[in-house]
Write a structure and sequence with these properties.
Chain lengths: ~100, ~525
């Protein structure tokens, strides 16, 4: 592959947009995940009683939130895969045609 | 960290056959070893080249790799340790396991795809991609080998103690057996054999734990809330809520960062992304791994509480203070001694698989990063490299056994935390910055990795974890139990400052041209 072609692709608006969108999504998802987990730790550190709130006879908020974070991890990872498979990959495919 | 597989066992517990030779577990264990060694024999025929030895010829599917990643990650420490923590401390055990899980989405968002596209066999490939090879390889090898060694010691000592309890086998013999069998997997079967050992182990562990939970829940009409009710009636509602585990917010944050970001810096985990054909498969494998690992931690949560409700806290603690025998006691309680034998042999298989993964990753660091890129300056014949890789495997096997014997009876529980701290501070920051930051330089990367590794080591020694709990001093010099918040932040800051101080033009130029490879997979290793 000649370097002029490479240069052209690297400088193209669609390639730049691809990279930018990729990191916008990745970094936002990362911050959401960090926020959820660190927020959880900080609530435990500062306000345990809040998490002791009963929900029904035996289950409390802590159990729901704890298991909820596991479900959330699945969800957000799945969302990323869905986005990457359906949008990112097709953009990559388009750009690759020019190589 | 008290993920203690540190078993302080009284040889024969009350009303349990633990510690005596169980025919079922011995039979299943021999079957496991026979099957996996047969796979190793099969894999050996397909393992000739470097790409086959290190990366299973990049022919593992995304789903298979996802299972293998889960297998690599679900150690006996998490199976027995977290179930035990829930069984003795209640809800606090879940806080730990969540920390271990949430690192996986971050691997997905930040490193999995670029890692697969840029690298060849080790994560140092990615860091060194546009920087100067030798200094980066040396610094990255230090981080890798430290992480692997501490993780390995914790696993080997845990293995010896565990097997002694499970099978009534002598500690030394147990350590040697683990060392010999895992060395054979890696030496002859390379990544292909190691991957299939991980997959088999993951399937056994997940199905064993599922059956255990179902058997236990059957005593509560399959209603989790009845199980929680029983715990609440017997031990009070505090057992079901966060307790004394997190009191100091900074400590909590530091541990959280270590668990979360350390996962994205574990060399044996990162290495697995080279076993799949492309970045799409790498992506899928993280999703599959996250699913299985999350499911597994939900199971351990129920196992812990079910053991608490059915076996009882006193019986669990009388056998092992850390509660590590909770899952096994529950297996015996719900499924009799045959089922106990099954779960015990699964735990043994788990240890074998994890140490094999660690050893392979250590051998790759020695042969690929140090031998080829430092000693041979990047020019190597495949034969010579394979020879070194195999010798490194034997060396690491012997080292693992030696360390396992040396640290017998020592408190090594903190070493898992230390391994995660080094991974989060030395490996992860350099890997991330090399992927996303154009201005990152060779010098910046080296200083970043060295800062992370040295600070983790020094701070853990003067922290309450070692300075007070192990060395017996009255007060710790460094207040936090886990150093990551300081060591990782410093590594990032040092890496950024040193890079900004003296830009490296060639590295910045290469950053642009490597983008085709990072984002399109153009020119990636096939």
């Amino acid at each position: 592959m000649d370097s002029a072609k490479t240069h052209e692709i690297l400088q193209s608006a669609e390639f730049k947009k691809l990279v930018k969108t990729r990191w916008n999504i990745s970094l936002s998802f990362t911050f959401v995940m960090l926020f959820v987990y660190i927020g959880f730790l900080l609530v435990i550190a500062y306000n345990k009683d809040f998490l002791k709130m009963p929900l029904g006879d035996s289950v409390n908020l802590a159990i729901v939130v704890g298991l909820g974070i596991i479900f959330f991890s699945w969800l957000i990872t799945g969302l990323y895969v869905y986005w990457a498979n359906n949008y990112y990959d097709s953009d990559v495919h388009e750009i690759k045609k020019k190589l | 960290m008290s993920l203690n597989l540190l078993l302080q066992i009284s040889p024969s517990g009350p009303a349990s056959t633990l510690g005596t030779a169980n025919p079922v577990s011995i039979a299943i264990f021999f079957l496991f070893v026979a099957v996996t060694l047969y796979i190793t024999y099969w894999a050996a025929k397909k393992t000739k080249t470097g790409s086959e030895f290190y990366a299973a010829g990049r022919n593992i599917s995304g789903f298979q790799n996802g299972l293998a990643l889960a297998g690599d990650y679900m150690s006996a420490a998490s199976f027995l340790g977290i179930a035990g923590m829930v069984a003795t401390k209640g809800y606090d055990g879940l806080i730990y396991s969540i920390g271990f899980l949430v690192g996986w989405p971050l691997i997905m968002f930040l490193v999995a795809e670029p890692l697969r596209n840029l690298g060849k066999y080790t994560f140092a490939d990615v860091v060194a991609f546009r920087l100067k090879q030798r200094p980066i390889r040396i610094a990255a090898s230090v981080g890798s080998l430290l992480t692997i060694s501490f993780y390995l010691i914790a696993q080997m000592v845990g293995a010896g103690s565990l097997i002694k309890t499970l099978f009534g086998l002598n500690y030394e013999i147990a350590v040697v057996v683990v060392g010999v069998v895992m060395t054979m997997y890696v030496l002859f079967g390379g990544m292909l054999a190691t991957t299939w050992v991980q997959i088999i182990k993951a399937v056994l562990l997940l199905s064993g734990a599922t059956i255990l939970v179902l058997l236990a829940l059957s005593k509560f009409n399959f209603s989790p809330s009845e199980l929680f009710m029983s715990v609440k009636t017997q031990y009070g509602s505090d057992m079901l809520a966060p307790g004394g585990f997190i009191t100091n917010p900074l400590d909590a944050l530091s541990l959280g960062l270590a668990l979360m970001l350390g996962t994205a810096g574990l060399p044996h985990i990162l290495m697995r992304f080279y076993t799949v054909p492309d970045d799409k498969a790498a992506r899928k494998s993280v999703f599959v791994a996250t699913g299985f690992i999350g499911y597994f931690y939900i199971l351990t949560f129920f196992i812990g509480f079910a053991a608490l409700a059915l076996v009882g806290k006193d019986a669990i603690i009388s056998l092992d203070k850390g509660g590590n025998m909770a899952a096994l006691l529950l297996a015996e309680n719900t499924g009799g001694s045959a089922f106990l034998g099954f779960i015990a042999s699964v735990a043994f298989a788990t240890i074998l698989a994890v140490v094999a993964g660690l050893t392979l990753s250590g051998a790759s660091t020695i042969s690929h990063d140090l031998y080829v890129h430092v000693i041979k300056k990047g020019v190597s014949d495949e034969k010579g490299e394979m020879k070194v890789a195999k010798r490194a495997t034997i060396f690491l096997g012997i080292l693992a056994v030696t360390l396992g014997l040396l640290f017998k009876g020592q408190n090594v529980a903190f070493m898992v935390g230390l391994a995660f701290s080094i991974a989060a501070s030395a490996n992860f920051p350099a890997l991330l910055m090399s992927i996303i930051w154009k201005g990152f330089t060779t010098k910046g990367a080296v200083y970043c990795m060295v800062t992370g590794a040295v600070l983790s080591l020094v701070l853990i020694v003067i922290s309450p974890t070692v300075w007070v709990d192990i060395l017996g001093n009255a007060e710790a010099i460094f207040p936090l139990k886990n150093p990551t918040i300081v060591s990782m932040t410093s590594a990032f800051i040092v890496g950024i400052i040193v890079s900004l101080a003296k830009p490296e033009k060639e590295a910045a130029d290469l950053f642009e041209s490597e983008k085709l490879r990072t984002y399109l997979g153009h020119g990636s290793e096939k």
